[in-house]
């Protein structure tokens, strides 16, 4: 785990032994490389370009949520397929969803459901939801995440707030905590990681501020104190003297009040915060905790200037002997229903709904047939996604599945098409963005034949 204050037994330099040169060099890894921002800031200033602040909130449900129990119920299917839940009518005529999502049903005009997402790699892995591609030995560590492409192409909207921010908790199943990396674009474009793992000896790449680890976002007062201690330490050492303007601007990410304020929920209207519900910081086995107020933190981060925020929420792998599908669904569906609708209401209330796109999805779907443990097994052939905001056309369902929800019956949609849509929402033309890897080979963010989803744009 990295520490801003270095080795407490080291001598010389600043930050308790880390000298100035090492401190700046550490920007290659610290905070996902945000201290390497001077080069990016300098380039942006030289070009004189400025982009509008569009943003994405990517909500990943680790473990594979059951599509036919959430957004694509089959009430006329055989009992061993249809499950225990009933469909309810939504605000949009003809669209029905699970009864445990009454708030989304009431706001269906502000959502779109994709019922025909195909092409899942079939692994318990966030990789495809972060990059649009399956994990392969060639891709791993090579292919940049969606947020990294955005960081490289558009830069920060505000110099004090990283463009690419992660609220992804490191999980016992490590691939559920994967938030992407900079790949061949460079570590300076990797996500700025704000949360760490639970205190079980699990290693985390999150920061430590004077011994205060960011293990849980609900310990926000300790986080803020750590930032304040860093401010005073840097000022006392005179570190700012002699730095060029871009190094100074990069260091602002650590010391500006913008990032501190974004994670400080004591600055949020208590009535708004109450609408999200109450956090449960306990990790769900090898998954993520039920931190419903991170939905609010995500909103505050994009409001502050982040372009891409990724987060994971609880654990959706329910087919083991102690994870019955319908028991867990009764616990987690209402939490997701409340948190995501409050987020969308928040964005609309603040006039941000045209600028902020929200996507909710997992790595694959679930088997049509319920197994002998009252659960559903892995089913990469079909899954679903929920989208909102970003100026997209809402109040519709895209695609359909066959009568058993086992395959796409119409309008199959791919991960590449979803990312093409999100890039378009950001005002970024991925066909015009070409970057080169270490071997000089050119790459584009998405495949040449991937187009934005026509029903949304």
Short note summarizing the structure:
By secondary structure, the chain is an alpha/beta fold.
Please characterize this protein's 3D structure.
The chain is α/β, with parallel strands linked by helices and 457 residues long. It has one domain: Alkaline Phosphatase, subunit A (3-Layer(aba) Sandwich). Helices cover 29% and strands 15% of the residues. It has helices spanning 20-25, 37-47, 67-70, 79-82, 102-106, 127-131, 146-154, 220-237, 245-255, 257-263, 270-276, 294-304, 325-349, 415-425; strands at residues 55-60, 87-89, 96-98, 112-117, 164-167, 192-193, 208-209, 212-213, 280-283, 289-290, 308-312, 356-361, 365-366, 378-379, 383-389, 396-398, 400-401, 408-410, 435-436, 442-443. Helix 2 crosses helix 9 and helix 10 (257-263) packs antiparallel against helix 12 (294-304). The protein is globular and about 70 Å long.
Main sheet overview = 8 strands, mixed
Q: Beta-sheet strand percentage?
A: 5-15%
Task: Just name the CATH architecture.
Answer: 3-Layer(aba) Sandwich
Query: What is the alpha-carbon Rg in Å?
Result: 22 Å
Helix proportion range = 25-40%
Which parts are unreliable, with pLDDT below 50 for 5 consecutive residues or more?
Answer: 1-37, 43-51, 199-218
**Spatial gap, N to C terminus:** 43 Å
Strand order of the largest sheet: 6-5-11-1-12-15-4-16
Quote the CATH topology: Alkaline Phosphatase, subunit A
In CATH, what is the homologous superfamily? Alkaline Phosphatase, subunit A
**How many strand elements?**
20
Mean pLDDT: 83
Envelope shape: globular
Query: What structural class is derived from the secondary structure elements?
Result: alpha/beta
Kindly provide the name of the CATH class: Alpha Beta
- How many domains? The number is 1
Total helical elements: 14
């Amino acid at each position: 785990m990295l520490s801003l204050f270095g080795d407490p037994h080291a001598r010389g330099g600043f930050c308790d032994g880390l000298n100035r040169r090492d401190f700046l060099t550490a920007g290659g890894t610290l905070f996902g490389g945000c201290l390497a921002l001077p080069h990016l800031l300098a380039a942006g200033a030289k070009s004189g370009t400025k982009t509008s602040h569009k943003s994405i909130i990517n909500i990943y449900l680790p473990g594979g949520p059951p599509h036919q129990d959430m957004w694509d119920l089959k009430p006329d299917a055989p009992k061993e397929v249809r499950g225990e839940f009933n469909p309810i009518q939504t605000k949009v005529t003809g669209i029905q969803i699970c009864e445990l999502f009454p708030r989304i049903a009431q706001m269906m005009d502000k959502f779109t459901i994709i019922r025909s997402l195909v092409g899942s790699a079939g692994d318990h892995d966030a990789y495809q939801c972060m990059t649009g591609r399956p994990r392969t030995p060639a891709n791993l560590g090579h292919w940049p995440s969606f947020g990294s492409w955005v960081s490289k192409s558009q830069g920060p909207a505000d110099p004090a707030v990283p463009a690419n921010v992660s609220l992804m908790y490191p999980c016992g199943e490590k691939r559920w905590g994967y938030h992407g990396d900079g790949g061949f674009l460079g570590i300076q474009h990797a996500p700025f990681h704000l949360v760490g793992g639970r205190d079980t000896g699990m290693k985390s790449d999150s920061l430590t501020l004077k011994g205060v680890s960011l293990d849980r976002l609900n310990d926000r007062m300790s986080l803020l104190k750590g930032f304040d201690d860093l401010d005073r330490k840097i000022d006392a050492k005179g570190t700012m003297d002699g730095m060029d303007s871009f190094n100074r601007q990069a260091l602002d990410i650590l010391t500006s009040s913008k990032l501190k304020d974004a994670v400080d929920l004591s600055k949020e209207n208590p009535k708004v915060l109450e609408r999200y519900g109450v956090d449960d910081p306990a990790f769900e086995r090898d998954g993520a905790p039920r931190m419903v107020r991170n939905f609010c933190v995500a909103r505050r981060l994009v409001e502050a200037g982040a372009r891409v925020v990724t987060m994971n929420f609880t654990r959706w792998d329910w087919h083991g002997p102690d994870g019955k599908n319908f028991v867990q669904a009764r616990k987690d569906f209402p939490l997701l229903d409340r948190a995501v609708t409050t987020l969308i209401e928040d964005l609309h209330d603040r006039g941000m709904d045209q600028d902020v796109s929200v996507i909710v999805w997992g790595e694959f779907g679930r088997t049509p047939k319920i197994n002998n443990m009252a659960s559903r097994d892995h089913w990469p052939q079909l899954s679903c996604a929920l989208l909102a905001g970003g100026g997209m056309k809402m109040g519709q369902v895209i695609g359909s599945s066959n009568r058993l929800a086992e395959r796409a019956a119409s309008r199959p949609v791919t991960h590449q098409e979803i990312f093409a849509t999100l890039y378009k929402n950001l005002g970024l033309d991925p066909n015009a963005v070409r970057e080169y890897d270490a071997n000089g080979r050119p790459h584009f963010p998405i495949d040449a034949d991937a187009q934005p989803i026509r029903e949304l744009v």
